[in-house]
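Regression check, zinc ion case 464:
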Amino acid sequence: MSDTPDSAVRTYTEQHRAAFLDDLAEWLRIPSVSAQPEHDKDVRRSAEWLSGKLAGTGFPVTEIWETPGAPAVFAEWPSEDPDAPVVLVYGHHDVQPAAREDGWSSDPFEPVIRDGRMYGRGAADDKGQVLFHTLGVRAHLAATGRTTPAVHLKLLIEGEEESGSPHFRALAEERAARLAADAVIVSDTGMWDENTPTVCTGMRGLAECEIELSGPGQDIHSGSFGGAVPNPATEIARLVAALHDPEGRVAVPGFYDGVAELTDTERALFAELPFDEATWLRTAASHATAGEAGYSTLERVWARPTAEVNGIGGGYQGAGSKTVIPSSAMVKLSFRLVAGQDPERIQEAVRAWAKARIPAGVRHRITFSPATRPCLTPLDHPALQAVARAMGRAFGTKILFTREGGSGPAADLQDVLGAPVLFLGISVPSDGWHGPDEKVELDLLLKGVETAAHLWSELADALR
Ligand SMILES: [Zn+2]
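Current build output:
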């Protein structure tokens, strides 16, 4: 009796589990902290280590791509099938800073396994989730009897994600022809929890600005002049107060133009997630939920655009009193954007909205930081369904769907390559990304291997 492909993948994964975990531990010992210049050599060493590992896995093409900052790793494994779809995997090999004294139970760069978990900086974010693709593709070949993957497989593993990916967009544009793909798989995310495997379908975008208002040329006496000249701090407060309507909607005209509304199916699937508001509030260190009327908490953070005040200031803030009209005041705003919103148009809308509200005699300066686009793959997209099927085969349970409220460079790939972005991650919220005692659950990591092993066959069928 022959094995089913699913049991063959499982057997292969189990047989190679120990060597795979040794490899991961070896990679985690390289402190590839992109934010700290003293680790530049380590980031390079990490790129070289990965490039060697991918060559050893069987990728006929492995290259180190230089950027003005840290190097990225590119690898390519063409399919023998000339009609095979092209798939690009994205991840990163740099890590967040970590030091024992931050509260780690053991050396962050000397990985240890305790209770079925591997602890070490980068275990989940993102080395573990990059590395599962190496054993994954080997298991795919072993289980299908193929000598090349069912898709034309490419990997791009950058080295500056934890530093804000400053050169990523330029790299993607410059190498767009080499990176061209029919779908992008981002393995730098997580799932709902240990018992609820999920596929993320999109991320919000981000536009940020600082508004500075100046009135008098210097702080002036509030007795001599107060009530007779405009006060920049009052005007900043008026702006902030006008940002939302009473229903919690953003009151900037045109803000919602083009917004992709949630479908009934998506809302129903979100509602199936085991969401506990009290627990969520504890994580949020907050005492009540608030936001746009008519939407659940998950819908608000995943699928609705928002405006938030990140910082506000002006005038005297020292001890006691100082009766002045301040010469200037400022506010920092951020806007999370969803599919259908164009960051440049949002910037224009915010600028026009603010300018129209600033009274005569108050000068203003509005500065926008570089924006990040939102990305979203519709639930019925064949490639997204293929990811869910691959994950379902590995986990043996129903796969639900999430989105990500944050923003990331994945959207650049969607933008530059014009390909749908799909998220495949097995990390869970307790993995401690960026914090002390970062870990990865070994059982889930191996499920990641199995999912990756099924994915190339599923995608080849779905995208053909
Ligand atoms: Zn990451």
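Comparison notes: The longest strand covers residues 205-214. Residues 172 and 382 are 25 Å apart (CA to CA). No diff flagged against the previous build.
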